[in-house]
Amino acid sequence: MRAKYLGRSDGALTLVLRKLGSLTLDERKKIGPVAQALKEKLEQLCDAQETQLLGLGGSVVDATLPSLAPETGHLHPVTLVRWQLEDLFTRMGFVIVDGPEVESEWYNFDALNMPSWHPARDMQDTFYTEVQSSKFKVQSDEVAAQRLVLRTQTSPVQIRAMEKYGVPLRCIVPGRVYRNEATDARHENTFWQIEGLMIDRDISLAHLISISKIFLRDLLGERIGIRVRPGYFPFTEPSIEMDITCQLCADQRRSSSRFAGPKSQTRLPKPVTGNGNIHGDKDAQFMYGVFSKDGYGGQVNADVKCPVCKGMGWLEFMGAGLMHPFVLKSGGVDPKKYSGFAFGFGLTRLAMMKYGIGDIRMMMSGNLRFLEQF
Ligand code: FA5
Are residues 185 and 308 in contact, defined by beta-carbon separation less than 8 angstroms? Predict the structure, then answer.
């Protein structure tokens, strides 16, 4: 507009103003003030328009440029790992089962052989609701069993799954759990677990260990070190705990001068005592019983400053065992005919290992700079 009407050489209004000199005095008096007023008005309009287009930042907005692509959401690291595992387990014939996050005390504790007086309850202190519900099936005579809790573990779904599907049964239960926990780099008050069950005739620890090997290697690679320790849970007998080599400081550990263990993650030392490798596994990936004191089996390596494993080199990631007859009975299964294994692992911790996340608290921080990396 400015160029068309006010352009110096051939703007329409400029030409009119330029011709004023060749006009008679009368014509000049008539046309001059009108043309001048029009020029001022046009300049004002052009200036106002220009200021608006320049915008606050002072840069010119080019309205012909294509617009910015809208930002799309993306998956949380826990979801990525959960989907990968769900895919793997369904290929092995497991079904995926869900359960409520607000659970009755019966399912969360009592049915799992943890009556109200059981000391093991203290390890999973939780949040109780003030509301009591009769909606949940309560099989215990105790009045207290009607309280509702934010579930502390995915294990209550063991009972629900047996009740709903009967046996034989192969299922996994991914879910969020809650604990009244002092938080640190590897402990959260809200985190994800995956429960796994396999009930059939003659199920043994060998099945449990074999399945664990498959999913850990699928997720974290062939070189992952796996350690099996004796453990205790009221709902499994025998019970084990499974640890994996900490993936956050693996390189640091191997290059440390104090590291007396094997340089590669796959070559774990033989246990000092115990029965060697479970089922003659030549990979020497599994250890159980008493561990050697060579810096790989339980000693802290002070050179390694790892916030997650604290220089231990190992991270506890799973509790498991053979299902206690009490639990099978709670779910309506005859323990004389059937046996089963059960495991429950920290999905959030596995996601930390897979993506090298050094603090579990990042997971629920809502920090976009963290989340946008996935
Ligand atoms: C249990 O929760 C048992 N229900 C597991 C189980 C299932 C045993 C079936 C036997 C049969 P535990 O409290 O150890 O056990 O927790 C299991 C895993 O959850 C731990 O190994 C760890 O990986 C993870 N976990 C436990 N507490 C936390 C926490 N505060 N923050 C993050 N992960 C945690």
Answer: yes
Q: Report the nearest atom of ligand 1 relative to the CA of 154.
A: 4
- Ligand 1 pocket by C-beta < 6 Å: which residues? 124, 153, 155, 179, 181, 187-188, 191, 193, 195, 233, 235-236, 316-321, 342-346, 348-349, 360
Domain 78-101+151-257+271-371 superfamily per CATH: Bira Bifunctional Protein; Domain 2 (3.30.930.10)
Query: What DSSP assignment string belongs to 95-132?
Result: EE----SEEEHHHHTGGGT--TT-GGGGGG--PEEEEE
At 36, the pLDDT band (50, 70, 90 cuts) reads very high
Q: Whose CA is nearest to atom 10 of ligand 1?
A: 320
Question: How buried is 326 (Cβ within 10 angstroms: 0-12 exposed, 13-18 middle, 19+ buried)?
Answer: middle
pLDDT band at 284 (very low <50, low <70, confident <90, very high): very low
Convert the pLDDT of each residue in 108-122 to its tens digit: 999 999 988 898 888
Asked if residue 254 has pLDDT above 80, the reply is no
As a whole number of Å, the CA-based R_g of the chain is 35
Residues 6+ apart with CB under 8 A from 99: 107, 151, 154, 156, 157, 160, 173, 175
Residue nearest ligand 1's atom 13 by CA = 124
Closest ligand 1 atom number to CA of residue 239: 10
**For residue range 257-268, what is the model confidence (pLDDT) as tens digits?**
554 444 444 333
pLDDT tops 60 at residue 30: yes
In angstroms, how far is CA 345 from the centroid of its own chain?
13
